[in-house]
Amino acid sequence: MTDGHFVEGLEDVVALSSEICFIDGDEGRLVYRGYDIHDLVKGSASFEEVVYLLWHGELPTKDQLTAFDQELRAQRALSPEVLTALKTLPKNGNTMEMLRTLVSLAGLYDPDDQDNSYDGSVKKATRLVAQMSTMVAAIERYRNGQDPIVPNEQLNHAANFLYMLLGTEPDEYTARAFEIALILHADHELNASTFAARVTAATLSDIYSSIVSAIGALKGPLHGGANEQVMLMLKEIGEPSKAPEWIKNALAQKRRIMGFGHRVYHTEDPRATHLRQMSKEIGERNGNTTYYEMSRIVEQAVKEQKGLYPNVDFYSASTYYMMNIPVHVFTPVFAVSRISGWTAHVLEQYRNNRLIRPRAEYVGIKKRAYIPIAQR
Ligand SMILES: CC(=O)SCCNC(=O)CCNC(=O)[C@H](O)C(C)(C)COP(=O)(O)OP(=O)(O)OC[C@H]1O[C@@H](n2cnc3c(N)ncnc32)[C@H](O)[C@@H]1OP(=O)(O)O
Ligand SMILES: O=C([O-])CC(=O)C(=O)O
Fold first, then answer.
1. Does residue 312's CB lie within 6 angstroms of at least one atom of ligand 1?
2. In contact, 211 and 103? CB cutoff 8 Å
3. Helices and strands (H, E) in the chain, number of each type
4. Known active-site residue 69
5. What residues does 32 pair with on adjacent strands?
6. CB atoms within 10 A of CB 204
């Protein structure tokens, strides 16, 4: 029985213990396994290195990283069955629903599908990380009536994704900027999608089912889906000078300003600091800073009028847009990164499992006499 003391939305409720990710919401700090994200970015960590760190708790040695990287590169190709199934999906379908469907199918065709041992789950986690990016790129190509691009084993994870998505190899700056975006989005403690993954894993269901749960949760506009909504908002605003008035009207109508506010951060989201800079730099490189400038004005207006800070989704929107990533691919791109954190959490759940089953505060009628249908 509950004692009536509960928090709607589980705000600040500690649901489990984890060694993977630490957030200080007052100081605006995000730490993966003891390493501050600022240090990982400044220290030129690779995305592959961060995946290894999240999974194993330690940075890899050179040999460990080489072996892991080679394994990821070797696992990038989708199975023929998944590629065939892709062609049966509606071309104008929601990209997150298409991704959720392909991940589910990939589970059925995974050579280790029946092996739900810990080692089997690690093998599947490796394929999930390697193939999430291939799936997202293939979905977009299919939507455009194009064949998927075969992964390029010469390129690292970040550069290969942009190559498979856009058809040309990114320049060095863009490849690194995108890799930093992947690192920044890799994990975030018990956010809604990771929690969904852990709830599923905690029933001792398989890792693909856990990831399908996570993708469903990430899609929502209050979570990962916000990055697409931010770009739609910037386009609706149209030009920087219109931003303050637009925000004023939106807030007067009680609309939520996408890309602002956070359940845990009460200050600047440390990921937004990097993405803001990236948005500026890419705008300058492209010779068009309109969306960066508009974003700055929106940020100032929302801070002044509502006291809210931008979250990770705000500046990732203009950043991805200026990298020529289509808007409906923004949330799938989040999944390309977050698969690293989801799998780390599912593996941790398996290592130290207890069923996750909270209670609800029952506020309905407690006792009624049943009335047979003939008398109603
Ligand atoms: C990767 C990520 O998931 S990051 C988050 C991505 N989501 C978004 O950007 C969507 C916009 N943001 C929001 O909706 C919220 O800030 C959330 C969902 C992220 C967190 O919300 P919660 O912690 O549940 O706060 P809650 O929804 O209770 O809001 C508290 C108050 O702040 C207001 N508020 C919070 N965020 C916003 C926003 N973005 N725009 C306008 N008002 C907001 C609410 O209206 C509410 O005001 P009230 O007390 O006057 O009614
Ligand atoms: O932590 C959260 O609630 C949402 C978030 O920022 C993320 O998942 O990256």
1. yes
2. yes
3. 16, 3
4. no
5. 21, 35
6. 11
What distances in angstroms separate CA 346 from CA 20, 191, 228, 285, 352, one per listed residue? Answer: 11, 13, 27, 39, 10
- 52 close to 59: Cβ distance less than 8 angstroms: yes
Choosing from 262, 269, 274, 345, which is the catalytic residue? Answer: 262
Rounded to two decimals, the pTM is 0.97
22 bridge partner residues: 31
The response to whether residue 264 sits with its C-beta less than 6 Å from ligand 2 reads: yes
17, 48, 183, 237 from 210: Cα distances, Å: 18, 22, 22, 38
Intrachain domains 16-221+331-351 and 226-322 with the same fold: no
Distance of CA 198 from the midpoint of ligand 2 (Å): 15
Tokens of 332: 């799938």
CATH class of domain segment(s) 226-322: mainly alpha
Helix (H) or strand (E) holding 331: helix 330-351
Residue 136 token pair: 């997202």
8 Å CB contact between 181 and 162? no
Cα gap 22→26, rounded to integer Å? 12
Chain centroid to CA 116: how far?
Answer: 25
- The Cα 312–Cα 316 span in angstroms is 7
| Tokens 């984890």 found at | 18
Tens digits of residue pLDDT in 212-257: 999 999 999 999 999 999 999 999 999 999 999 999 999 999 999 9
Reading the block at residue 37, the tokens are 């994200």
- Please state the domain extents for the chain: 16-221+331-351, 226-322
- Tell whether domain 16-221+331-351 is in CATH 1.10.580.10: yes
Q: Report the C-alpha gap between 51 and 53 in whole angstroms.
A: 5
What confidence tens digit (pLDDT) does each residue in 27-80 have?
999 999 999 999 999 999 999 999 999 999 999 999 999 999 999 999 999 999
Whether the Cβ atoms of residue 312 and residue 184 lie closer than 8 Å to each other:
yes
Q: Work out whether the CA dihedral 311, 316, 321, 326 comes out positive or negative.
A: negative
Q: What's the token pair of residue 133?
A: 């990016």
- Asked whether 303 lines ligand 1 (CB < 6 A), one says no
ipTM of the modeled complex: 0.98
